[in-house]
Amino acid sequence: MFDIGFWELLLISIVALLVVGPERLPGLARTAGLWLGKGRRFLSSVKADIDRELKAEELKRILKEQQDSNPLHEIVEEASEAVKDAERIASAASPSSSDAQAKPSDSTAKQADEK
Length: 115
What we know:
The protein has four helices and no strands. By secondary structure, it is mostly helical.
């Protein structure tokens, strides 16, 4: 985040030692550390909340897309159309097959005579 090197930290600590004094410097450093920790925890919790919201929005979008496309409904419709086509083909073929069953072919009659 900030690019603070060794020399910058040394300068800040010398200025703090001169301004605050050696007696109160440890307490000031402890208090500054506590506030810094609270700030980091707050920022990480805000970041986690934002990430959760983004993931929730993405999940809602995916669910809406799946609901709109509804592939299961399409599969059921395709299967029912295929069954209807098969029934039409079977009904169209059934009169000719019933004629074939009623009139045995010559080869079938010859085979029956041979037995």
